[in-house]
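I can't quite decide. Please look over this sequence plus structure tokens:

:::
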Amino acid sequence: MSTEADPMPSSAPLARTPLPVMAPDAWPPPPWRRVPAPPPGAGPGDPHRRPGRTAAAAACAVLGLGLIGGAVAGTWLTTGPGERGAAQAAYARGADLWRTVPVDTLFPRTIHSATAGPGGAARHWTRIGVAADAGCVGAFDPLLARALAPVGCKRLLRAAYTDATSTRVTTVGLLVTDADAAGMRSLGKRFTDERLGERPDLMPRPYAPKGTAAERFGDAQRASWRISVLTDAPAVVYAVTGFADARTGTPPQPAEQAARPGATTAPAQAGLGHDANALADRLEQGFRHAMTRPQETPR
């Protein structure tokens, strides 16, 4: 199986929203820099000033700063390196999990939740297809492919699910990137700051296995979606959902909005946003579990 990274489009980046610049004096000085005004008459030659008190105050200040500094240093030495080392090891495992993790770990055959549906209703989904691991060419709308290009594409894993009534279908996907932790944090910040996950022109494309309820699930049938950029792992998790009867004309709505209480859009009323959220959450949980407890069984 080839391990070469799949090239992503290299066209011009999307326009970025500039972040506000905080003026140097926008924040008040910290308490230890606020020097109170001396009382009246307490000048250098004030006979009421006592050198002994001044020296004692200075000594206490030095001692206090030493204790604070020691506590901070002690905390860093006690908790920092171990936690950082574990996080780095898990991140490194995440880059190659697609080679060894069992399919059922990431994409269980059935998924049940007692509260994932609208109003806290129970929901049940069945896996109806798993795509062969591949590259990312054609998997995303062009603008989404461009937005994801900075982190690269090592491998793409996808599966299709249907609900208990076979009227709703969902594609869930895991994009394994080539980026380091800084690159993933940068992408995550951009998606958050520019709200890229809410744009209907940046939707993932469906996986439609033939002979299943999802075989007519194409670009025109997409009705709700979710994209999650993981900042502690080299991965992007997504889900896109729609109706199994191939209907078109449903205005797509981000899963976060479609799952809000009181939402009245077609995706919201049908529970498509809930489907996308629940299945993306389950995939992310399975991936994180495998990162902390690597599996040896080959896919």
Notes: The first helix runs from residue 51 to 100. The longest strand covers residues 155-163. DSSP finds seven helices and seven strands in the chain. The helical segments are 51-100, 103-106, 142-148, 181-194, 255-258, 266-270, 272-292.
